[in-house]
C-alpha cells in the first residue's frame, strides 16, 4: 500500500518499498516475492538444492511452472506425454525432471498437454498471474516483460530461484531510477518493437546497467498491453534490471476476466484497482538518468550486427567501423560484420534472407500474429526463403489465432504453423539455423550463435519479419502494406476464457476482507526441516592469487560464456569444458588463438576483461558455473551486467569492478606478461605478484561478509522467519488477492498447503482420454 512518507517517489521506489521485509545498514534488503514463474532450464538444480537440504516450497500458491525452452514445436496431435514426445535426451530429461519436481512440491504446472502451456513470459500475464504492484521473478532474464503491468519484475539465477522457492524472498539492493520518455506520435508502420530497438540503439546494451527503467510519455500511454510487454521485455537488452510502465485503464481492461486476477466487479477487484491506480511516479520524483525520445523520429528499425545495440533504420546502410569513435565499438563492429557476412555501405534493404522466425516472448502474442497476418494475407513467401515459421507464444494464443483464421492465412502463404514454445529464439529445441543462414527474427537477441552455431540474426518487428518473408530480403513494411495503420497501437484482447472458476464466492471474499486473520496465508515454512535455518555451504573467499587471463572484449554475453546446448544439464558441475565454447573451439578443435587455450592460461584463476558490461544477456547461472569449473573464481572488469554479477556471488566467486582505466590496464598488463595477480578481498586490494598494491576496489559489506565466511544466503534468510511471517500477514490484509486462489485452493483450517485444484477441463496434462488437438 502507498506509504505515508512525503518525499516524491518513482513507481519503482514505491513497489520496492512496499516489499521490504528487512533492510540492513549497508542497504542490503530482503524483499518479498509475490509471483514466481518457473521453467525447465533454470530450475532443476534449485529443486535439487531444496531436496538435499530437506526444504519445502514456501508458497506453492504464488508459483507457476511450465515448459518452454526445450520442447519441440512440431504438431502435438499424437502427444501422450513429454517422455515419449521429446526425442532429444537432455531436453527430455529437463522437462521430465520439472514434471517430477512440480509433483513432489505440489506446484501448479502447465505441461505440454495443457493448452495454457507456453513461453513463461506469455502465460503469466495471460492468466492474470502477473498483477500491478507485485514483485515477479523467474530464472530468466526476460522476466522484465511483466513490468508492463507496473510490476517490479526481473530475472534471477538458479541459486536465487532456490532462495525464492525456499523463502519467497530475495536478497537485493535498490537499483537506480532511469526514465525513458517517448512523446509525440509514432508514424504509420512503426511498432513498439521499433521503439525499443531504437531506444537500445540510443542508450546501448549497458545503458541501463544498475537501473530500473520507467517507460513513460504519450507514445507509451497509447500502447496496448501487449505492445508494452514487448518493450519491457527488451529492457534487459538495454542492460536494465527491469522495465516498468505505470498501470492505467488499459492495464485494468486487460486484466478483467483473467483467471488469476481478482474477479472483475468484486470487492477485491475494486480494492485492487484503487491500489493499482496509486502506482504512478509522484510529481517531482528524482531520476538518476533521463532520456527523451520523439516518437516521430522513429523509423522501422532492424539490427545489423551481433548485439541488440547494433541497429539501423531499415532505410539505412550497413555501418562501417569508422562510424564509431569508441575503440571497443570499432573492434566489435569489425568482428560483427565478419560474423554477419555483411559489407559496410550495403543498403539494409538489399540484404537477402534465408529464414523467417515469428515468435518468442517479445513477439508471439495475438497482436503480433495479427500484425504479421495483415502483411502476408493473400501473398506468398518468396521462393528464396527456405523456411518461414510462426510459433505462437502459448496454446491459448494459438487457439485464438486459429479462431480468427490466422493459421490459414499463414499456411496459405507458405508459413509453418507451429506449437507454442521458445523455439528458434535460442534453439534449445530442434528449431535452429544452419551455419551462415540469415534470419529475419522477431526475437530479442542477435548474439553470435544465438539461433544456431554461426547463424545470422536480424531483429525486427513482426510486421517487418512478415514483409521480409514476402520480399525475400530485409524490407520496409511501409512500402509493402497499403496505407498501414499504426501497427501495435490497438488494444484488441485475446479471449481467455476463465478456465477454472475461482473457488471464492462473494461471501467468502467479504469474509477475507473483513477478517483477514482467519485466512492465514498458506505458508510452508522451511525453518523446522532438517538443515532449515543453518547458514553454511560455500567455500570461503578471502584472498586469491594466481594466473590471470586477459580478455579484450566488450559486452561479453552469457550466450558466449556458455552456449545454449550446454544449458540442458540438470547439474551444476562439469561445465568447464563448455566455457567460451564457440571461441575456444573450431569444429571441435581447440582454437590456439583463444587465451584460455594457451600455456599457463589454461590454469587461470582470474579473468581480466578490459571491455565493459561483462556477462550481459541471459540469466543463465551456467555462466559462473562454467567459469568456476574451469578454475576461474574472480573476474575483474570495468563493469558487469546485473544478473551475472549477482550470480557469481551466489557461487562463492568475486566479480571486481575496476573502472579506473589506468589501473585496469596495469592489471591487464600483468596478466599479459603471465605474472600472477592477487585479489585480496579482506583488504579490498588488487596486488601484483610481489604484493605491491595496484588498486583498491569496492565491495558491498554484506556480500563481503558472506564470501569471507562462506555463508549460504538461504540459511541466513531462514533466520528471518518471523519477519517474513509478519510481512505475509500484512500482505494478506493489504492485498488479499495475492494469496493463492483459482488454481490452488486455500486451506481453510490452517497454514498447510493443500493440493492443486481439480484438473479443469482444459488441463489436458493429466487427462489421458481427452483428445489433445485443439
Ligand atoms: C534459459 C534462460 C536462462 C535464458 C535467459 O535468461 O534469458 C533464455 O531464456 C534466453 O533467452 O537466453
Ligand atoms: S528470450 Fe527466447 S528463449 Fe528466452 S524466454 Fe524468451 S522466448 Fe524463451
UniProtKB/TrEMBL annotation:
CDD domains: IPMI, IPMI_Swivel. It comes from the Eukaryota. It is an enzyme of class 4 (lyase). It holds the Pfam family Aconitase_C. Residues 13-472 form the Aconitase/3-isopropylmalate dehydratase large subunit alpha/beta/alpha domain. The keyword ATP-binding does not apply. Gene3D superfamilies: Aconitase, domain 3, Aconitase, domain 4. Catalyzes the isomerization between 2-isopropylmalate and 3-isopropylmalate, via the formation of 2-isopropylmaleate. This is 3-isopropylmalate dehydratase. It comes from Penicillium egyptiacum.
